[in-house]
Specification:
Elements lengths: L1 E6 L5 E4 L2 E6 L2 E5 L3 E6 L6 E7 L32 E11 L8 E10 L4 E9 L5 E10 L13 H9 L8 E6 L5 E8 L10 E5 L3 E3 L3 E5 L5 E7 L14 E3 L4 E5 L14 E2 L2 E7 L4 H12 L11 E2 L7 H4 L2 H14 L3 E4 L10 H4 L22 H10 L2 E6 L10 H15 L3 E4 L7 H17 L5 E5 L15 E4 L15 H12 L7 E5 L7 H6 L10 H6 L5 E4 L8 H23 L1 E6 L7 E8 L4 E8 L6 E5 L7 E9 L3 E5 L4 E6 L4 E10 L1
Parallel strand pairs: 21-22, 21-28, 22-23, 23-24, 24-25, 25-26, 26-27, 27-28
Antiparallel strand pairs: 1-7, 2-3, 3-4, 4-5, 5-6, 7-8, 8-9, 9-10, 10-19, 10-20, 11-18, 12-13, 12-15, 14-17, 15-16, 16-20, 17-18, 29-30, 30-31, 31-36, 32-35, 33-36, 34-35
């Protein structure tokens, strides 16, 4: 919600807290106490002149030769051999109050129009008080469509176009920056969705040149200071853009951050379409990950009382639809309460339509009737089940799948159905499955549905956004609406990728390097349900070579997802899982208050590795270590944050005799006597 807004005219200055916006002699200065970015508006489309780190005084940008943004097939002010008439119509600055969708910030908006093509752009910049981030987003509405061929096929076509057009004409660039001479691109980080098919979710590309993929691009100087680009967009392979890369690095050291999320055929005169948000963040040596995580925490606020969970989802039992009945679900919620879980999520099979396959296989047009109860299996709906859940101290949650095969044009009707279940049964958490954002229309309609329900419920409704298959938002998009259901991993089937504690730990460890594990649901299957022949055929170590408490301890620093039917769980295993859940819930608030980092060697079956949660405000935190099956009993592990002062450690829990000692600087000497074990510590720093 805007607190107030004001038009910026020449010789005037807008100030809010430490944020300053000033227009003078066709130059627009934006910034705060941490950074300033100066734009030349001579050609209406902003051209970056400088980007200064106010903390160090360093200049991070050289003067840009072209406008900062462009759209494929659209003539921009510097397009060769064309005539354009761009003009700046208006600049406004607005204070936007903090909400469930974002933290307090200032939005600077430029209205730009081109008379020959009859195109209008809305260029937005977002600045946060006292934080080193400047975020951009661009809207487009046009009387003409982009002037070019739209095919993405290669061969002769690409050769002809590459000779006929410059790269700028063939890409949609949302933001760009010519780096200062002492800065170089150091690492691009690419993410993979469709986790049903792979355990490789993160790819790091060192010293990228030319064209590269990723949501993140880190650039730094020899001292390690620098900036990074973050694209709040789906993973690279899920994108719909014309260009086949996410970043382009030119010979003059200009970084073009592409990916609008809008295809050239989607531009129209009827509706303004907005790009994804692109972030430029400044950091000092050794703080790039801390800076990234602080941005994500600022951008996607979480409510500790509502947004965290220990969720039971029974789909992991492998035959859930055949089990659905009122008695079974009542037994399930009672068993979930005994385990200490906070939520029980009824998955596919409760509805009259009966199966997701009606959508994904048969392409059924799903009407409201599809989403009423199956009276054959649940004659009383959720009435008695919801009462049992309340008595057991468990919140009822629900799986649903909006209509991807009609681009979510029926989103209002679907939202009414969701809200009805929220109102009738106090269901707050909804898992959203079968997502396909194959077009800008689909993506926008899906977001309208998510946002509408969050607003209508005053923040009560929260979504688990499944990233297992299809074209989906991924790890940096739509997190203001919920968290990430990461992967389906079974121990009871003879197909698929299959659960293994080593790969689950590796996935969490690699993702936690760059995203906040507070936003991830991490699975714990049924320890006694292992289909041994499946792993033998794959020539893999049996997953139950690791004990049950190790399985349960992997998501200690994330949101545990009990991927099983608790009423069918072996009592001994239930006791072990319940003990770890109690441990997680006892310390969760403090763990999640800090920023969580991956530490140690990347999990590979032979590592001692783990996670560190550090609360900078109190100089305290938590450590969890895992010794894998083939790991040596000792390891030297670098702390994720400086450990200046005396480190006071307290052992909390674990399945091993262990010790952690600060040896020198930020090094920790970790000893664990058992393979396939974990150990959990708290710490504080004293000066």
């Amino acid at each position: 919600m805007q607190r107030y807004s004001r038009e910026i005219t020449s010789e005037q200055c807008f100030v809010y807290k430490d944020i300053r916006v000033e227009l003078k002699n066709q130059m627009l200065l934006t910034g705060n106490s941490r950074l300033s970015r100066l734009f030349n508006l001579k050609h209406a489309v902003p051209q970056t002149i400088s980007l200064i780190d106010e903390y160090s005084g360093a200049e991070l940008a050289a003067e840009h030769g072209n406008g900062d943004f462009s759209f494929v097939g659209i003539n921009m002010p510097h397009t060769p051999k064309t005539r354009t008439e761009y003009r700046l119509e208006k600049i406004t600055a607005s204070v936007v109050e903090g909400s469930i969708f974002d933290s307090e910030h200032v939005c600077i908006e430029l209205k730009i129009h081109e008379d020959i093509q009859q195109i209008s752009f809305t260029r937005k910049y977002f600045l946060y008080p006292d934080l080193p981030y400047i975020v951009s987003q661009t809207g487009i509405v046009s009387k003409v469509t982009p002037l070019m061929y739209w095919t993405r096929r290669g061969g002769l076509y690409k050769k002809v176009l590459s000779g006929q057009y410059s790269p700028e004409k063939l890409e949609s660039c949302e933001d760009s920056l010519r780096l200062a001479d002492n800065l170089c691109p150091a690492r691009a980080v690419e993410f993979a969705g469709r986790t049903d098919y792979t355990n490789d979710h993160v790819f790091e590309h060192e010293n990228p040149v030319g064209m590269c993929n990723g949501n993140l691009l880190f650039c730094k100087n020899k001292a390690g200071d620098g900036l990074f680009f973050l694209q709040e967009a789906p993973p690279s392979e899920e994108r719909r853009d014309f260009e086949e890369y996410d970043f382009r690095i030119s010979e003059n050291n200009t970084v073009y951050s592409c990916c609008w999320g809008i295809g050239p055929h989607e531009v129209s005169p009827e509706k303004e379409l907005f790009s994804y948000r692109h972030v430029i963040a400044l950091y000092q040596a050794g703080t790039e990950i801390t800076t990234l995580k602080k941005y994500l925490k600022t951008r996607f606020p979480q409510n500790a009382e509502k947004d965290y969970s220990v969720t039971v989802n029974p789909w992991g039992v492998g035959c859930f639809p055949s089990l659905v009945s009122e008695k079974f679900l009542i037994d399930e919620v009672n068993a979930s309460g005994a385990l200490g879980a906070t939520h029980y999520q009824v998955d596919d099979g409760w509805q009259k339509g009966r199966a997701l396959g009606e959508l994904t296989n048969n392409n059924r047009h799903m009407t409201r009737d599809f989403w009423i109860f199956s009276r054959e299996h649940l004659p009383n709906g959720f009435d008695h089940i919801a009462t049992a859940a309340k008595d057991a101290g468990v919140e009822l949650a629900l799986w649903m799948a909006p209509s991807c095969n009609c681009e979510y044009r029926d989103w209002r009707e679907f939202a009414d159905i969701v809200y009805d279940y929220h109102s009738r049964y106090n269901i707050r958490m909804f898992k959203i499955d079968a997502v396909l954002t194959r077009s800008k229309e689909a993506e926008d309609n899906l977001e309208k549905m998510l946002r509408h329900l969050r607003e209508r419920s005053k923040g009560e409704i929260f979504f688990n956004l499944d990233t297992t298959n299809g074209q989906r938002p991924g790890y940096f998009l739509f997190l203001e609406y919920g968290n990430i259901f990461l992967e389906n991993r079974y121990v009871c089937h003879s197909w698929g990728v299959g659960y293994h504690p080593e790969t689950t730990l590796r996935s969490l460890w690699r993702l936690t390097k760059y995203i906040r594990s507070q936003t991830l649901q991490i699975e714990i299957p049924d320890f006694k349900a292992v289909k041994r022949e499946f792993y033998a055929e794959k020539k893999r170590l049996q997953p139950d070579s690791y004990p049950a408490d190790y399985w349960a301890a992997i998501p200690l620093f994330a949101n545990p997802l009990l991927w099983l039917a608790p009423s069918r769980l072996d009592p001994e295993v239930a006791g072990i899982y319940g003990k770890i859940i109690k441990l997680h819930l006892e310390y969760r608030a403090k763990i999640f208050t800090g920023e969580i980092y991956s530490i140690g060697h990347e999990p590979d079956g032979a590592s001692i590795c783990g996670f560190q949660s550090h609360d900078a405000a109190s100089d305290s935190g938590f450590l969890v270590f895992y010794r894998e099956n083939s790991a040596a009993p000792e390891a030297q592990i670098q702390s994720a944050v400086p450990l200046s002062g005396n480190l006071i450690l307290k052992h909390i829990a674990g399945s091993t005799i262990s010790s952690v000692v600060k040896t020198s600087g930020n090094e920790l000497a970790v000893t664990m006597d058992k393979i396939c074990s974990f150990t959990f510590y708290s710490y504080e720093l004293q000066y």
